[in-house]
Structures are given as C-alpha cells and as structure tokens.
Design brief:
This protein has helices at about 40, 45-55, 80-100, 110-120, 140-155, 165, 180-185, 210-220, 250-265; strands at about 1-5, 15-20, 30-35, 60-65, 105-110, 130, 170, 175, 200-205, 225-230. It is α/β, with parallel strands linked by helices. The chain has one domain: 3-Layer(aba) Sandwich (Rossmann fold), CATH 3.40.50. An eight-stranded mixed beta sheet has the order 1-2-4-3-5-6-9-10, with helices on both faces. Strands 7-8 form a two-stranded antiparallel sheet.
Amino acid sequence: MFPLFFGKPDRQLYGVYHMPELGRALPLGAVLCQPILHEYADARRAFRALADRLAKAGVHALRFDYQGTGDSAGNGDTCAVDRWLEDIETAIDELKASRGLEAVGLVGLRFGATLAAQVASRRDDVPFSVLWEPVTAGATYLDQLRKLQTAWVNWECRTRPSARSQASQVEVFGHPLSEQLAAGLARTDLPPLSGLRSARSLFVDEGSAQGGESLRREAALRDTQVQACHIDGGQVWRREFDGAQAQVPFELLSQVTNWIREGAETP
C-alpha cells in the first residue's frame, strides 16, 4: 500500500494505492468509491480488503477520501455531491496518469455506488462499473439518515440524558450533514442502468436497496450490459447502536474481484 495526495493544490485528496503483485499486473485499474458519513467508517475494513484482493488479482486499485472527509482537504462545510463527483473523475485521471493505464473502472458501495453510476453515465472511458447496494433515491436516503440520527439519540438518552441537548439534525452519528450536502443528497438519484456507458456493469444486490427488484429486472434486459449478483454480504456498512458490526464479506469481495478480472481476460 502506498499513501498519496493528488488533485488540485488547493483541494488535495488523500488516497491509498494498492499495487499489483510483481509479474501479475494487468493493464487495468479500479477506483473505489466509498460510502459516506458513518457508512464510510463502517465499511473501511471491507474496502481495504477489496483493494488488497484486486491488487493480488493484478488490478491497480486506488481508494481515496472525498473532499471534506477523512484525510482529504476540507471539512464538513466543503462536503458537496458535485465536488465528490469531480473527485471521482480526478481519481480516475490520477490512476491513469500515474500508472500509464488506459482502462480504469469504478467500484462503489451505497451512495458511493450512486456517485460511481453518475460518473459512468457521463464518461466514455470507464470500462466497468460495480454498483454494490446503491442508493436509488437520494431524498429517501436523506430521510433515512435523519430518522437514524433521531433513533440513535433516543437510544443514547436511555443511559445519557444529555445526549439530546448535545446532538442535532445537522449530523449523523457525529458526521456533519450540512445544508449543502443535504440538498445535494436530496437531488441525486441512481441513473438508469441502461444509461451507463461502461461496457460491463455489475449490480451487487444484498436485498436492502430500495427498488432492488426493479434494478434486477433492468439488469436482466438484453439491451443492457448489466449483470446482477445476489449475495448476502452482511451489510457491512451497518453498525448497531451498541457498536456491533458486520464481518468483512470475503465471499462477496472475491466474487467482485473475479468478475472484474474475468472481464479483463475476455477478448
């Protein structure tokens, strides 16, 4: 693993590059688009494991923090959906330029998958897209986040009454949810799968995505290049209020890795 900063000088993004094993490198890269807010922290181990698996399979992998998150420049006030879309494109260009690659695909989880689909719908140079349990309706997702924050505060108040006065609806599990970010989430939906410009796309279905059934039907249409994979990965982005967390879904990660590699080997 090689940590790095990249992008514009005034909005540097922090990333970690996972180099393929010596002698196994393919002319193919993957940018990992992480989920957001608390789901980012909960899925971190799984994304690192996925990047490791991709590298062992010969795929150049780059995972990174969106602007205003993690170790990238900015703070909660600079978090914005439009900027995050630009960040993904910047990450694609960085991996291409630094590794001399022509083919760099996208792998996204939850809202990261929604962002990945948006980018794959407007760029012609994204050979594959993996949409892992994408958020289909931004407004519904925002409502769920706010309800989750309320439920968490109520749970905390059982043993810590001061939690209610300390918490607010401009955060989720301690992660800032600014008006700017909330507005961006509310207007961002998953684009039609048929609109993806990727030659190959994989919809990874764990059964919790709103509209999952219609997505599976769309993936089954002959005029799309989208496949559907239904597998229970334990919903790694979720964490119970008491801290209990799902295990890293190694079987799911292996299936995703194999699908990406098989595409690279198909003439």
